[in-house]
Amino acid sequence: MSYLIVGMGKSGIAAAHLLLQKQEEMVLFNSSDLDAAEFYQKNPKLEGIPFYTGSLPEEVIKDITVAVLSPGVPLDLAFVEELRERGIEISGEVELAYTMGQGEIAAITGTNGKTTTTALTGEILQNYYDDVRVVGNIGIPYTQEAATTTEDTRIAAEISSFQLETIKTFHPKAAAILNITPDHLNRHHTMENYIKAKEDITKNQDAGDVTVLNYEDEVLRAFGETLKTKVVYFSSQRELAEGLYYDEGDKAIYLKEEGKKDKVIDVDELNILGRHNFENVMAAVALSLALKVPMDSIRESLKRFVAVEHRIEYVCEKSGIKFYNDSKGTNPDAAIKAVGAMNRPTCLIGGGYDKGSTYDEWIESFEGKVKKLVLMGATKDAIAECCRKHGFENYEFASSLQEAIDICYRNAQDGDAVLLSPACASWDMFPSYEVRGTEFKDYVRSLPEK
Questions:
Q1: How far apart are CA 221 and CA 392, in angstroms?
Q2: Which of 98, 218, 250, 449 lies at a C-alpha separation of 20 to 30 Å from 40?
């Protein structure tokens, strides 16, 4: 078997290292120009493996049996179609890792909340089991860890819709779909395609497995009725006859199972804000129980867990103004949750790369929360137009993130908050949401007191 690794980013390089460890034949390919000498210098273990950029010679293509695509490579590219027509199997980094690794997997997908839920699930598992890996879209490629896993390994994996498009045999013991709202439609083209990609996380599960679903998502509630797995629902809006739910009156999360009701935790004992985070907690609890972690151990982990970086992350306080970094709020639904978590008047920074989203519900969520909106990036005009349509006039444009922060700081008063939650991806102005969030934090910390 001969592999073609398509895309020489983090996941492509990790996939190549895995194949090297398994002594498999491979060819490396990057569609855009990348200096081979520089590439080998940065990745010395891969030196000597054939490396191509731009296009592949015919004599190379004819020997390929499997193409492993990086998540950022769309399946409808002409190049990918050509590979498929030649009978070359199209695979992905997650599928490769699964087929070459071992262990029991808790896999998490959804439009929002994946990283927090994966980090929390990983921490719960790490506090109980000896060998735990936290991998996937959270930042550590699954292929980076696969070679050293054993049957005793427990894996918490954040899996994106892009990664789910190329799975074939990937089989998690427990899988969670947290929610599905419009996102990445520039890649998936239709909402139906996007929903199917998310739901495919369950396609190889059977009756002995667990699927965790959000009862308040109508698509997922109906999807649960079609599954042969044990379905565990969670709800932040109502008491369930079976499953996990948040009781707003008691300010507590409960588990009801086989007619028995147990309190999981008082939410005041948690270090993460907002109803959406209570949903993430419930999903992590259900996944951890499915992987046989005792409730007492889960409860202790919940009390210690703090928010992940770039997700409603408290940065600092200046002149009585609290600053929060939610750079990972890269779509309107995520940004709505961040606005909802604010408990003081807020100056909000929004805008960025255009993924084809609409902003009406985001603007509507401002009432009683957002006192000023500062817009930047490619979507600023479209968001401003949406603001006017909904009667929100207190917005202003900025040409840089630093200028946006300065405007917010000038307009905020003692007792207010400044929130970066852009509702858009970062790629028009920054290489990633991590870079955007880090720049926000660095600049905010440098601000003088008023």
A1: 34
A2: 98
Q: Give the pLDDT score at 37.
A: 86
User: Six-digit token pair at 265?
Assistant: 């935790």
- Euclidean distance between CA atoms 387 and 358, whole angstroms: 11
What pLDDT is attached to residue 309?
A: 83
| Other residues' Cβ atoms within 10 Å of the Cβ of residue 251 | 12
Contacts of 233 (CB under 8 A, 6+ apart): 212, 213, 214, 215, 221, 224, 240, 242, 243, 244
**Residue 272: per-residue pLDDT:** 85
| Residue 348: C-alpha distances to residues 231, 335, 384, 396, 434 (Å) | 38, 10, 13, 11, 18
Q: 437 near 401, Cβ under 8 Å? A: no
pTM above 0.85, yes or no: no
Cα 181-108-355 angle, rounded to 5 deg: 35
CA distance 311 to 158: 15
Q: For residue 74, what pLDDT is reported?
A: 83
Average confidence (pLDDT) per 10 residues, the chain, 450 residues: 91 95 94 84 92 89 93 85 93 96 97 91 98 92 96 96 92 96 62 88 97 95 96 97 96 94 95 88 98 98 88 91 95 92 94 93 96 97 97 97 98 97 96 96 96
Q: Phi/psi of residue 188, each to 5°?
A: -85, -15
Question: How far is residue 173's CA from residue 106's CA, in Å, rounded to a whole number?
Answer: 6
The two beta strands, 210-214 and 174-177, are parallel
Could you give the domains of the chain?
Answer: 2-93 (3.40.50.720), 101-304 (3.40.1190.10), 313-446 (3.90.190.20)
Q: Using CA atoms, how far apart are residues 61 and 74, in angstroms rounded to an integer?
A: 19
Q: Which of 186, 187, 6, 162 is nearest to 79 (CA)?
A: 6
Q: What is the pLDDT of residue 180?
A: 86
Q: How far apart are CA 177 and CA 213, in angstroms?
A: 5
Strand 260-266 and strand 252-257: the pairing is antiparallel
- The two tokens of residue 323 are 């600053």
- Cα–Cα separations (whole angstroms), residue 75 to 113, 167, 425: 25, 12, 21
